[in-house]
Amino acid sequence: MVNIVDIINVGLFAAALRMATPLVYASLGGLFSERVGIVNIALEGMMLIGAFSGVLATFGTGNPWIGVLASILVGGLLGLLHALLTVKFAGNQIVSGTGINLFALGFTGYMSQIIWGSRGASPSVQGLGTISIPLLRDIPIVGEIIGNQTPLVYIALVIVVLSYIFLFKTPAGLRIRAVGEHPAAADTAGINVYRTKCLYVMVSGMLAGLGGAFLSLGHLDLFVFGMTGGRGFIALAALILGGWTPFGALGASLLFGFADALQMRLQSVGALPSQIVLIIPYVLTVLVLAGFVRKRIPPSDYKPYVKD
Amino acid sequence: MTETKISQKLGQLLGKTWPKLVTSLRAALPSIIAILAAFLVGAIVLLVTGHSPIDAYGAVLTGAFGDVYGIGQTFTQATPVIFTALAFLFAFKAGLFNIGAEGQLLIGGFTAAVVGISFTGLPVFIHLPLALLAGAAGGAVWGFIPAVLKAKLGAHEVITTMMLSYVALYLTSYMVNYPLKAPGWVPQTVFVAPSAELPRILPPTQLSASFILAILLTGITAYVLERTTIGYEVRAIGLNPAAAENGGINIKRGVILALVISGAIAGLGGAGEVLGVHRRFIDSFSPGYGWDGLAVALIGGLNPWGSILAATLFGALRRGGMVMNRATGVPLDLIVLLQALVVLFVAAPRLIRYFQKKGGFKWLT
């Protein structure tokens, strides 16, 4: 008989926070893209290439923070590609996203073999490590959960708050939402719709890239082929479940992160087939979209905007 | 300028003598340009990373088409993608984005395997059709769920089909890891009964009668879309839902029908893989045939026969890529990179049109 304390303890919640972090970044990325009216199913690929570039830059320079910058930059480049294809060339958003996902998979697999001679995994690099926050770490229980984490965990939480303020409390945020909800009206009001869309799809890629950096530099300290393992799609699910808001995305990411952490523990003690837990985010998203849990209405109709 | 004039003259001449050829060329040209552009970018990547593009592409070509074995394996790889491309295409004609062919294929393969395993002693002419039908039915059910959610509750099919693909992946994975696991370490079922096997048509390659089914289904799909009431309704909904509704077409019924048929086609493809190639259900046996189907349908110009050509390209890349990897040491992932580049170029029709005009092919646009 498995002891319940072996599974559900403080360590589980700390692990849940870690597993949630890449989802937080990627779902915030999805949020910015969808708020300007572009569906981004390429989050998966942007994360993957972010994870790869982070390790590559750290491998070259020895400094994981330069790696993080590289992840943001290269994620942003893929975001720009998605923006150019879908906004400038009015291409289909799903097709472009599929192409980018395939591209990231092929590119990272190819380059891993060229650079490190191995498709499976890169050599270990200097990771970001963990930092311990004074005061926070001294709070009983809570301190054990969030007091001693990798810096990217704290940065994620800060970005959630900043995103909320930016999107809902500033004029720039209002403009973003206007572009997504009613591009023609935004255009009339003097907002450059195309430029706004391009810019925030790029931001979307940067955030997804950062999520990838967490996976490779904040978690494993190396790059593993296909290491995102569908997290980009789960992030999309978290975005929908969270009703296209930063705090909603955070909540849903924490829920899915918890499921992921629980799944790994249950699997390690052989208590429950991992598939049963892994399936939850996807089933939940379908139920949410169907309105069984709580009806969510997307902030845009995602149609390409063509200026008259 | 003179080149443009020559090409214009050529266009006029061709248009008069063989108008059908010009029409087909006009339809195929964007894809051909996208493929060439992708190979060009791929060649640059190869050069930069110290490999010879000529050697690499040469190895792909000879590996895929150099001998009978290679050709057989190329079409073996192309077969499931023809199914998933037709599945994507059928739903797309109704204006629906079914990006869940991957899941429908897995479920179809699984239900076919269950029927193939469960009965013994049935004659082939009963057992085999029954197993194939089970595959189509499984896929149809997996298309029916997002269809109903879309038609009755307004849930967007892009997300629901995508999520249901993962549900299918984990569901079948659970089944072959636990209740239906064959003895041994590999998560897979036992072999299906011989009476449920699709015959191999070009031994020793793995090419099975599933390929013939795929060709037949392509013809049927083209016929249904062009010549039947169902096809007319589906296309009318895709072109202009409001007008279709005014014309007396039941949109909800049409949407459900299109996604169910789409799912059934993908499910049949899964059944073909299980009954023809593996003869059992292996955990997550599809290396992304569903996503390939989306790409192939688009590269094939959303035309059923075009899908066969584009699927052959993808099959040749998969098969030839393995030979290239062994012969030249170029990483196999180059193939995925090439496929991705084709999709990205196809995704930007305006970019392709720009190339077409610059290249002096105005008469084709």
Key structural traits:
A: 308 residues; mainly alpha; two-stranded antiparallel ribbon; 14 helices; B: 15 helices; globular
What is the number of beta strands of chain A? 2
**Individual helix count of chain B:** 15
Order of helices and strands of chain A: HHHHHEHEHHHHHHHH
Mean pLDDT of chain B: 91
In helices, the fraction of residues of chain A equals: over 70%
Number of strands of chain B: 0
N/C terminus separation of chain B? 17 Å
Shape of chain B: globular
Quaternary organisation:
heterodimer
Distance between the termini of chain A: 69 Å
Share in helix of chain B = over 70%
Q: What is the level-2 CATH architecture name of chain A?
A: Orthogonal Bundle
Overall 3D geometry of chain A?
A: globular
Radius of gyration of chain A equals 19 Å
* Element-level helix/strand string of chain B: HHHHHHHHHHHHHHH
List the total number of helices of chain A: 14
Task: Tell me briefly what this model is.
The complex is a heterodimer of chains A (308) and B (365). Chain A has helices spanning 4-7, 10-35, 43-61, 64-88, 93-116, 142-146, 151-169, 171-181, 183-188, 193-220, 231-241, 246-269, 274-278, 280-289; strands at 131-132, 148-149.
Characterization of the model:
- The complex is a heterodimer of chains A (308) and B (365).
- By secondary structure, chain A is an all-alpha fold.
- Chain A has a single domain (4-289), classed as ABC transporter involved in vitamin B12 uptake, BtuC.
- Helices cover 70% and strands 1% of the residues of chain A.
- In chain A, helix 7 crosses helix 8 (171-181) and helix 8 packs across helix 10.
- Chain B is mainly α.
- Chain B has a domain at 80-306.
- The longest helix of chain B is centred in the first third of the chain and has 30 residues, at 19-48.
- Chain B starts with a helix and ends in a 7-residue tail after the last helix.
- The interface between A and B is large, with 48 and 48 residues.
